[in-house]
Amino acid sequence: MAYELLEGLSHADIAFRVQHDDLESLFAEGARALMAIMMENPGAIHPTMDLDILCEDEAIDLLYHEWLSEIIYYKDARRLLLLPHSLDISPFERGYRLRALCRGEEIDRERHYFRVDIKAVTLHGLSVTRDGEVWSATAVIDV
Questions:
Q1: Which is deepest, 58, 110, 111, 137, by most CB within 10 Å?
Q2: Is the confidence at residue 135, as pLDDT, over 90?
Q3: Is residue 103 within 8 Å of residue 110, measured between CB atoms?
Q4: CA–CA gap between residue 33 and residue 3 (Å, rounded)
Q5: What is the pairing mode between strands 134-142 and 120-121?
Q6: Residue 93: how many CB atoms within 10 A of its CB?
Q7: Angle between the 23-38 and 60-78 helix axes, to the nearest 10 degrees?
Q8: Host H or E run for residue 65
Q9: Is 123 helix (H, G, I), strand (E, B) or coil?
């Protein structure tokens, strides 16, 4: 997994950027980056359960925000650590729709070691852009 921490974009939060050559992989890498920032050992997440996630938004950057926010929501509300297994993004009449199959498990404090608790994805600094063949997504997370 490749992600880059961005210094100076925010002083109280953590900013990160992921890049990939297709949109689905970009969004999947964003979710994996969240886990890698939050956890010392994201490889300890076992795929013991599946969960379907559906997100829709009018703009691709807002869809990215909603997607990452869903991953955080399930961590907080249902104590689930989720990683994307498959992901599809398609246009529809009101913008973009994301359908993801995520796999993961309930938090186990004896196996899952946390560095920080991610509270939310902010709109500050949020972007999803394409430069030639490369997609790039930047997000700032509140910890």
A1: 137
A2: yes
A3: no
A4: 6
A5: antiparallel
A6: 5
A7: 40
A8: helix 60-78
A9: coil
The residues near 93 (Cβ < 8 Å, ≥ 6 apart) are none
pLDDT of residue 2: 77
Instruction: Tell me which amino acid residue 9 is.
Output: L
Residue 29, strand partner residues: none
Cβ atoms 26, 60 nearer than 8 A: no
Average pLDDT over residues 8-25: 85
Buried b (16+ CB within 10 A) or exposed e, 76-85: eeeebbbbbe
Q: Give dist(CA 134, CA 116) in Å, integer.
A: 30
- For tokens 């990215």, the residue is 64
What is the mean pLDDT of the segment spanning 51-61? Answer: 98
pLDDT in tens, 33-53: 999 999 999 999 999 999 999
Mean pLDDT for the chain overall: 94
For residues 133-143, give the mean pLDDT. Answer: 95
Token reading at 92: 């529809």
